[in-house]
Amino acid sequence: MVSSLLRLAATCCLLPLTTMAQEVLPLWPANAIPNNKPNITLTETSATEGGILRISNVTVPTLAVYRPAKQASPVSVLVCPGGGYSILAASHEGADIARWFTDRGITAFVLKYRLPDERTQTNPHEVPLNDAVQAMRLIRQRAGQYSIDPNQIGVMGFSAGGHLASTLATHTVQGPHAAPDAKPNFAILMYPVVTFGEKAHGGSRDKLLGTLKADPAMIELYSNEKQVSAQTPPTFLVHSMDDKAVPVENSIGFYLACLKQNVPAEMHLYPTGGHGYALRTKPGESVSGWPVALENWLKTIGTKR
Hints:
- By secondary structure, the chain is of the alpha/beta class.
- The protein contains 8 helices and 11 strands.
- The strands form 2 sheets. The protein has an 8-stranded mixed β-sheet with strand order 1-4-7-5-8-9-10-11, sandwiched between helices. The protein has a 3-stranded antiparallel β-sheet with strand order 2-3-6.
- InterPro entries: AB_hydrolase_fold (IPR029058), BD-FAE-like_dom (IPR049492), GDXG_lipolytic_enzyme (IPR050300).
- Residues 1-21 form the signal peptide.
- GO terms for molecular function: hydrolase activity.
- Keywords: Hydrolase, Signal.
């Protein structure tokens, strides 16, 4: 009964994000969400501004499950929406992407992760990664239930969600956040925040690190191009040269780091497109071809790595 109520509550909190999702899973047991301060809660809000659904004040992270009508692939993908670590762009970088995958026979999981907040969390810079690690573990644990291969689970992230995805892909294999059982088998990084150095998206960096933003060691740790190793999974990157929010050097730096470590990587750079487009590209613009390029890459990479 308690489990059913928790699932119902999670579903109600995430209705805008999970339209057509078959299931919504709480990431953590009730009253046992790591890093949450006791007896401090915020009201989760969702609003549409400029055609973008924005979710704020996430305190109960969840995983929305999107299964294809006809299972055609053992591959699955964990999707991390962007939003500068301040909000979640929950529809066009979440549910819409999940439906794109299910249309191609691929199971998708949309992560509603907690956003760093010193009011409600201890060590808030660790919280998004905590949730992503737990999400990967849950997906692997339930691989049989969803008819997916536990060795072909990828992560996809947009903008700041791309930073979270690249953190999951690099930090889980080494360093203070090592969690080999949560390492994705491939990564898809869409106009990602990668570096916290010279070409950083300052808003994402400052929101994640908070009072630690001036610590050189933290800047180094969360500059994920510096965390690429030979164990980093195959990676697909998309970026526009005219991106005014997140400089294209974020993707270029990660790609070059993969090249140096002999990690299979494919990068698509487009002259125009700006930032935050996801599937909402302009007809005739070259960036509108990125979904076809991704579909082809998914068919050819060796994900069992």
